[in-house]
Design a protein that fits this description.
The complex is a heterodimer.
Chain A lengths: L1 H10 L9 H4 L1 E7 L6 H18 L6 E5 L3 E7 L4 H9 L4 E9 H4 L6 E3 L9 E3 L20 E5 L6 E5 L4 E2 L3 E7 L5 E7 L4 H12 L8 E5 L2 E4 L17 E7 L5 H12 L7 E8 L1 H58 L6 H30 L4 H33 L3 H32 L13 H5 L2
Helix pairs in contact in A: 1-8, 3-4, 8-9, 8-11, 9-10, 9-11, 10-11
Chain B lengths: L1 H6 L6 H27 L9 H4 L1 E7 L4 H8 L6 E6 L5 E6 L4 H15 L7 E5 L1 H29 L2 H25 L5 H31 L7 H36 L4 H22 L1 H11 L1
Antiparallel strand pairs in B: 1-3, 1-4, 2-3
Helix pairs in contact in B: 2-7, 2-11, 6-7, 6-8, 7-8, 7-10, 7-11, 8-9, 8-10, 9-10
Classes of the chains: A alpha+beta, B alpha+beta.
Chain lengths: 470, 302
């Protein structure tokens, strides 16, 4: 048993536990949607947040998960530009309006690419792309809304690559958007905020003076072109679109589905639901390290005290207990590391508290066993018989008591949210390990060591005569 | 004394002491109820953390004077409702009422400028009042389901009466923890709630081990119900285990408290340690002092 757990320990030696944010530093935020929000919408939102954060680049291992019925837990460890990161997940969208400069509709390939005929091999022309553009796809790699970008659109049913100028308007300029069906075709009615109406008029004035692809205004969401409607031909370039409203014609092909989708995007930005930031927590890396150090040192000191106490009090059996407890610790460490690697379990402060509590729990199982041993010796049983009886009896007690703890952790895990779950998991894990150790290690080790000697003083701080004269 | 304790041959007549313990229990309960009554009627406030009240906390390490603190408390940006300083470290925590994000950022920048600490080094926590409520309500729901299952479990393994005694011991521990928090004005954070749930686990674990021992003794005496001899024998024998177990459980937790204080690290881990320590001590206490009077009552009615 010991060798087995040691083996596991060595085997995964190069895996260390995944540290939670509170131990590593970073930001954690909880976003809460309105009660009763469709869980599918929340899932969609989570997916969008994930893609946004991975586009962010700076985050080591972002973790975005649904917690509870209508909350999303976002954990961003080791991030430097925190405000921007919170903005990226928390706000409903990075929606921009950008003038179209050119597109693959007129060229047949990405406007970013320069294609020169290869004199040696006419079949394979030489393709070159500017900096920051993928030469294979002709798309901008890291989109910056303040610069010219080459972005993809899939909304028309076939891919189109647009060359776009810097963003002129953003989702913040929009006050409302609605899909309506006034006559014979679907229209998305766009309402701009009062102080953005002028900007929109200026933009449409400029666009209306141009022709072809350059007459289009692209609606870009998280670096993807959602739609690129052209400015209607009857718009006067000297006046533009005024009044702070605009109508986007959506045709009649899909019973208004695309019109509705566009309206939703315009209204909410990227996320299909709006979230309230119910908690933002920022932990600096130093505080995280300090806490981790404190947890580890305290755990170690605690373990040393417990060991000294057990050795003093139970002698040889104390030694068994320490052996068992250290293997327990190794197994536990391995399990947490493995869970971190394969299940994404992160060790948080609550988890450390759970571990420290479990040291006490595990130690108690030994104490229960040794006390039974003492009781059996007291009624005059032989060492061998007493030890065997003790481990069998103790097993029953520990089984009952651990069952209570296990029930508690399962219920907590299933019903609770956030940090409580991490705690419940470590506690439950520790209880299961405790049962395994009691059943397979203690149960064999105690009778084995009882064979070593029948000198009471090797097992208890008391003389044999005193013990058996009760 | 130690020898007797060790051998479990102390001759404490727990059966007889039952009445005394009951009186102590009643006194305790009166105090608990008085304290809860006071806090409900608004004479005392529980020190609820920002997670429950909503608002923002800022924690930074810096050299500060009392003038600096009063400057911050009287700032015009955002109402700062409370501050906290620590003896062994130069950490300082400000707590501001709930407000808009702009205001919160403004205060962050203000603090950064005032104490010459870069904003990255200021721990910043913003919480809406719903978050704490959600944790609490989910926790309470878990608690009730848990209690129902436990009662069923203990009644099945032992007796319904035992299950009720275990519950009484449990509530005693919870009330005691609450009262200590209330009287010492310790801050209640979500960690405290977790710790309270652990206390429940401990308290039950301890009580179950005791019941198991009682059942064992019944077997030895070949009796189907309790009598005073069984009660006395069991509790005298089990004393040592109770003490040992609470010692081994308390060591790691005490070391968190001492080390935390020594290293000048405040906050989260201590948030766990304090209620856990209270809970372990109270759990050990209640498994003897609260169960005995009720067990004695059962014997008397038999």
């Amino acid at each position: 048993m010991i060798s087995l757990s040691l083996f596991i320990y060595v085997f995964i030696n190069d895996i260390s536990p995944k540290l939670g944010l509170d131990l590593q530093g970073g930001i954690s935020l909880i976003l809460t949607a309105e009660e009763g929000t469709d869980s599918e919408l929340i899932e969609q939102a989570v997916n969008i947040m994930r893609s946004r954060i991975s586009a962010f680049g700076d985050v080591q291992e972002p973790e975005i998960s649904i917690s509870g019925e209508n909350s999303v837990l976002v954990q961003l460890p080791g991030i430097t530009d925190q405000e921007k990161a919170i903005e990226a997940v928390g706000t409903t969208g990075l929606l921009t309006f950008r003038p179209v400069l050119n597109s693959s509709l007129s060229l047949g390939y990405s406007p970013a690419l320069t294609i020169v005929e290869n004199p040696d091999d006419p079949e394979n022309p030489i393709i070159s792309a500017p900096n920051g553009v993928d030469s294979l796809t002709g798309l901008t790699i890291n989109d910056d809304p303040t610069k010219v970008s080459y972005l993809l659109s899939l909304s028309g049913g076939y891919p189109v690559i647009y060359e776009l100028g810097p963003a002129v308007l953003t989702g913040n300029d929009i006050s409302d958007a609605l899909a309506v069906y006034p006559q014979n075709e679907w229209i998305v009615q766009l309402v701009l905020k009062d102080n953005s109406a002028n900007k929109f008029t200026e933009l449409t004035k400029q666009l209306a003076s141009l022709t072809g692809e350059q007459r289009k205004l692209a609606i870009v969401l998280d670096s993807q072109v959602i739609s690129a409607p052209g400015i209607a031909l009857d718009v006067n370039p000297n006046i533009g679109i005024t009044g702070g409203t605009a109508a986007i014609s959506m045709g009649n092909a899909d019973q208004g589905e695309s019109a509705n989708n566009l309206a939703v995007v315009l209204r909410y930005g990227a996320l299909p639901v709006s979230f309230e930031r119910s908690s933002i927590q920022k932990v600096s890396a130093t505080l995280g390290e300090n806490t981790l150090r404190l947890g580890l040192e305290a755990g170690l000191i605690g373990l040393i005290f417990v060991s000294l106490f057990l050795i003093f009090y139970y002698r040889i059996n104390g030694f068994i207990a320490i052996l068992g407890l250290s293997s327990f610790g190794m197994l536990f460490y391995s399990a947490i590391s493995l869970l971190g690697k394969y299940q994404g379990y992160t060790l948080t402060l609550a988890g450390i508290a759970g571990i420290i509590v479990s040291i006490g729990l595990a130690a108690d199982s030994y104490i229960v066993t040794f006390e039974k041993f003492k009781d059996e010796l007291k009624i005059g049983r032989s060492f061998q018989y007493a030890s065997e009886k003790a481990v069998t009896e103790a097993w029953k007690t520990i089984l009952t008591a651990d069952f209570v703890s296990l029930t508690a952790s399962v219920i907590l895990y299933v019903l609770a949210i956030g940090p409580i779950r991490g705690f419940a998991l470590t506690l439950g894990l520790a209880t299961i390990f405790d049962l395994i150790f009691t059943r397979f290690f203690t149960k064999n080790a105690v009778p084995l060591f009882a064979k070593v000697s029948d000198n009471t003083r090797l097992f208890f701080p008391i003389k044999k005569e005193v013990l058996s004269n009760v | 004394m130690f020898k007797k304790l060790f051998l479990g041959t102390t001759e404490i007549n727990f059966y007889k002491l039952g009445n005394t313990f009951l009186k102590v229990f009643i006194v305790e309960m009166t105090i608990f109820i008085a304290v809860i009554g006071l806090s409900l009627s608004g004479y005392r406030d529980l020190n609820l953390s920002v997670d429950f009240t909503g608002g923002t906390t800022y924690q930074l390490s810096t050299d500060y004077s009392s003038d600096d603190i009063s400057d911050v408390m009287n700032n015009t940006i955002l109402k700062v409702s409370r501050y906290q300083t620590f003896e062994n470290s130069n950490s300082i925590i400000f707590r501001a009422v709930e407000s808009t994000q702009d205001k919160e950022t403004e205060l962050l920048n203000y603090l950064s400028y005032k104490f010459d600490v870069p904003t990255e080094n200021i721990e910043f926590q913003r919480v809406g009042p719903t978050f704490g409520a959600e944790i609490t309500s989910k926790g309470l729901r878990a608690l009730f389901i848990f209690l129902a299952i436990i009662v069923a479990l203990i009644s099945f393994r032992y007796e319904l009466k035992f299950a009720i005694i275990a519950l009484v011991a449990l509530f005693h521990d919870l009330l005691l923890s609450y009262t200590v928090y209330e009287l010492l004005g310790l801050e209640i954070t979500p960690s405290t709630i977790i710790a309270l749930l652990t206390i429940l686990g401990y308290s039950l674990y301890d009580t179950v081990i005791l019941f198991d021992k009682l059942k064992d003794s019944q077997k030895i005496y070949k009796r189907n119900n309790l009598n005073s001899d069984i009660l006395n024998k069991t509790f005298n024998e089990v004393l040592m285990r109770s003490i040992n177990t609470s010692l081994t459980s308390a060591f790691p937790i005490i070391s968190i408290l001492f080390l935390g204080n020594y290293l000048g690290i405040d906050g989260s881990l201590s948030d766990f340690a304090v209620p856990l320590l209270i809970g372990i001590l109270s759990g050990t206490y209640s498994s003897i002092f609260v169960t005995v009077p009720f067990l004695s009552k059962i014997i008397k009615t038999n």
